[in-house]
Amino acid sequence: MGNLLYIIAVILIILWAIGFISYNFGGLIHILLVIAIIAVILRVIQGKKIL
Fold this sequence. Notes:
It is a single chain. The N and C termini lie close together (12 Å). The chain has one domain (2-46). The protein is elongated and about 35 Å long. It is built from two helices and no strands. It has helices at residues 2-22, 27-46. By secondary structure, the chain is mainly alpha-helical. The longest helix has 21 residues, at 2-22.
């Protein structure tokens, strides 16, 4: 489950970068980035090992 969370976070960050460059995704991609960051922060707060 933990690895899946990081895979999703990495995918969302990549999508954000693509959207930032191409401006096609607009505000949606930034929302996805925020979700990815929150997921990583929750893992750190829970004290689970990163990767």
